[in-house]
Specification:
Blueprint lengths: L6 E3 L9 E3 L11 H11 L7 E5 L5 H8 L4 E5 L3 H14 L4 E4 L3 H11 L7 E5 L12 H10 L6 E9 L7 E2 L2 E9 L2 E8 L3
Parallel strand pairs: 3-4, 3-6, 4-5, 6-7
Antiparallel strand pairs: 1-2, 7-10, 8-9, 9-10
């Protein structure tokens, strides 16, 4: 049975071609290769030496791609136990020293990590990928995500990226952050938020 497990590959950088396991697709949808490629085409060299936080990390394939491309370290937050086990396995296969994994509620843990990084000189890329379209009772998950971002007070956030269902109307402003652009890939989209210029 083992070989029918879904997998994905790291696209570029130090660990290019490394195969990562994905949780079963009914629990997390894997971030499509095209979307991931587009994300890192936007970030390019800006990812180098940044701290990458992947909320709702699933397999960790986005944060591990960031590490492969030169991110300083990555924090992964995943609540689901099975997904978390796969995340751990993937981090160990890539570079565990640069990975900090937490099995917890994203809305509790992300602010704690941000608070911990408050006085750090490092710039932070925050990637928020709320699960959509497969769990009942998740209607307010975007509102909770928006609320979490609105409450961010740090000034060392480089960019916030939200992966979301493409039909969703994204707020122009979330607290200190303003929508810079949205790119759509079929049912999924990426919205980029930058500091609001004073």
């Amino acid at each position: 049975m083992a070989n029918d497990r879904p997998t994905t590959k790291i696209i570029a950088g130090k660990y290019k071609g490394k195969i990562l396991d994905l949780p079963s697709l009914d629990v997390t949808r894997s971030s499509k290769a095209r979307l991931k490629e587009s994300l890192f085409n936007v970030l390019q060299f800006d990812i180098i030496d940044k701290v990458f936080i992947e909320s709702f990390a699933g397999s960790g394939s986005i944060g591990l791609e960031a590490i492969s491309r030169g991110a300083k370290r990555a924090y992964f937050i995943e609540k689901d136990r099975n997904s978390y086990q796969i995340l751990l396995k993937n981090c160990k296969a890539v570079e565990m020293e640069k990975c900090q994994t937490v099995q917890a509620n994203t809305f509790v843990q992300t602010p704690l990590i941000l608070d911990f990084l408050r006085n750090s000189k490092d710039e932070i890329v925050l990637y928020v990928d709320p699960p959509f379209d497969y769990r009942e009772g998740m209607d307010d998950i975007y509102l909770q995500s928006f609320e979490m971002i609105k409450n961010i007070e740090l000034d060392n956030i480089f960019i916030i990226i939200i992966e979301h269902v493409s039909s969703l109307e994204m707020p122009e402003v979330l607290g200190k952050f303003t929508l810079n652009k949205t790119k759509t890939f079929g049912k999924s989209a990426l919205s980029y938020y930058l500091y609001t210029q004073e």
